[in-house]
Amino acid sequence: MSRGILAYCKRVIAAEKAHPWRQQQKIYANHPINYFFYNSTALFSSSSRKSSSLHNYYIRKRRKWPIQPYKTQWDQIFAFRLAKQSFKQSIRKTKTHLLSDLINSFSAYEVNPTPQSYHLLFKILIQKRPSNRHDQIQEILNHIEKGESFETPECVFIDLIKFYGDNNMFNDAVELFFRLPRFRCDPSVEVLNVLLSVLCRNKMGFEMVPRVLLKSQVMKIRFEESSFGILIKALCKTGSVSNAFELVNQMVDEGFGLDQKICSLMLATMCRQLNCNVGEIMGFMEDLKKLGFEPRKDDLCNVIRFLVKKGKGIESLELLKQMKMNGVKPDIMCYNLVLDGLIHNRDFSRADKVFDEMLVLGLTPDIYTYNVYISGLIMQKKVDNGIKILNSMEELGCSPDSSTYSAILRALCEAGEMDRVTEVVNELRKKRVQLNPQTYEFLINGFISNGDVNGACCFLKEMMDKKFVPQRTTLDNIVGWLCKIGLCSKAVELLGEAVVKDVFLRMVGTD
């Protein structure tokens, strides 16, 4: 028995000499030895009290000593951690030879690098950006292809493809995707979608998409709904709605569900194309409905906006009625667009009905609603009614803005009621509402047209004090009018103020 124990101890000492690094594990390595040593002796001491059938179990021929500590799984894990720690220490000063540093660190502890280790190399090269990172990336890829035998997961290459895309290296991204089988990698639709997203960023990459799609079929990658979505969004971005619609048809034919968001994007893209006519937009929406598309409020609002831009106010009103019949509740934006379209078409009777209907439904008018409706009243020469609505806006919880006052002031200037213009301007100043340069321009021209040069000069000085640059024609009109009525000295004074305030220099800059 003592000879067996002595032989075991010799083997352990020999193993420690062969692997000096295991001295770092002294605490962990000694416990199993002591544990099994004392338990083994206890077993031998108690074996005499056992039956004779069990006594022969411990003879040299049949005994089973504990597994040596340098062959256990935890030891491999600990060695891998030490190798990883050694690698991180070796790259603190320089990152120009990551691959050799990794191989040397792992070989020192007799373990092999894993795919995650090479993934770490790619992350370091992408984030730290050493000067020779492109050469190092190719070196690592060649080593994985020819020097390793493990099956490489595709997540190792996804970050690398994104890196190529961020640096517009589309050829390198496509080449890496084509090389995936040589890395013993079984690619899925995930890596394909990443590559498609990278290529669809600009025209140069988008031209490579057909070649990638053909190669993906050879690589037996199944095209999924997410892949269709990436391509359809890219086509909508370039304005190729017809090609996007063909892809939608193909997606439905292959048994995929219709994505409502994709259809909304296509319809919105179609509505932004001003070269389309009303018939094309309405026909396109009907084609989408046949595929199963159900337009929502935002979709119909986009169509109404298109109709208003095309001057089709009555058609926009009909679509609004159709929305309500289909159970889609229009919001204030839909009513604002229809109201704007009807007023631009000077269909004031229908506009009044739409405004009243909006109030009956409990919708609260916003500033855009009031501005559109007041402009309609001004077009009908009902300035007083517009002023009444202006005065009641704050009571209704909507404060007028500069555009609201500008519409009223312009109408009063055109009507020649300069006294009321002054009253409105004084009210603006009390409420600390700032006038914009366009408002100052028509105020100055309005006072000049009505022969009030002094009022025009006051607004011009106020405009220059606020660092606004008047139009050259506006300044010329005031100076010419002053000279015409014999106030040349005042004209010179006005020009002197313009020079002091660098108005002419800023005029040149704006020109």
From TrEMBL:
* Keyword terms, alphabetized: Repeat
> At which residues are the PPR repeats?
224-258, 331-365, 366-400, 401-435, 436-470
What Pfam families does UniProt report for this protein, alphabetically?
PPR, PPR_1, PPR_2
May I ask which residue range the UniProt record assigns to the signal sequence?
none
PROSITE patterns, per the entry: PPR
Gene3D superfamilies of this UniProt entry? Tetratricopeptide repeat domain (1.25.40.10)
What is the top-level taxon of the source organism? Eukaryota
Q: Which InterPro entries match?
A: PPR_rpt, TPR-like_helical_dom_sf
Q: Which family does it belong to?
A: Belongs to the PPR family. P subfamily.
Q: Which PANTHER family match?
A: PENTATRICOPEPTIDE REPEAT-CONTAINING PROTEIN GUN1, CHLOROPLASTIC, PPR_LONG DOMAIN-CONTAINING PROTEIN
This protein is called Pentatricopeptide repeat-containing protein
**Can you name the source organism?**
Rehmannia glutinosa (Chinese foxglove)
